[in-house]
Design brief:
With 171 residues, this protein is mainly α. The chain contains five helices and no strands. Helix 3 runs antiparallel to helix 4 and helix 3 runs parallel beside helix 5. The longest helix has 48 residues. The radius of gyration is 18 Å and the shape is elongated.
């Protein structure tokens, strides 16, 4: 019985956390140059992270920290949602590739933890040449893995609709 509600629960949790993070990250849009947290995720050098932190100022740095803390909750929901959904689609379609893509969603969540730790280190006024590079690398790999999972999810759902097997996704 619980398995039936797992995907809807994870989907709703993901959607709620997207809303929370958009709302809490909204003040960053008032920044002169760097309008969202993704700018920091891909800042691969100390020079770039320093420019972002200086542009944001104390208030927006505090907001970015809060947004990053919320991301720990978000990553739990989205990575598990993508894992279980892609894995179920792979099971229904007997796809080994789908299983690998599902596992990639878990790796994306783990990389997001590493990325968040790097951003919090940077936002706490620690200077480093290595941390921004590692953070940006983790972000890049994470987004590639999430891109594969999202594309597989959409194609898989369309395929299940065409096969009239969509109901199997929630069993």
């Amino acid at each position: 019985m619980m398995k039936k509600y797992l995907l809807p629960f994870l989907f709703i949790g993901t959607a709620i956390m997207i809303g929370v993070m958009l709302k809490t990250g909204e003040p960053l849009k008032s920044s002169a140059k760097y309008k969202n947290i993704v700018c920091l995720e891909f800042a691969y050098s100390q020079q770039k992270t320093t420019a972002i932190v200086n542009d944001w100022g104390t208030t927006n740095v505090a907001i970015a920290k809060i947004n990053t803390y919320y991301d720990f909750i978000f990553l739990l929901f989205y990575s598990l949602f993508l894992f279980f959904t892609c894995d179920k689609i792979a099971l229904i379609n007997k796809s080994k590739l789908g299983v690998h893509i599902a596992n990639g969603a878990i790796w994306a969540g783990l990389l997001d933890i590493f990325e968040n730790a790097g951003m919090l280190y940077t936002l706490s006024d620690h200077q480093s040449n290595l941390i921004p590079l590692l953070t940006a690398t983790a972000a890049l790999i994470k987004f590639v893995l999430l891109g594969f999972a999202f594309v597989y999810l959409v194609i898989g759902i369309v395929s299940l609709i065409r096969q009239k097997k969509l109901a199997l996704l929630l069993t």
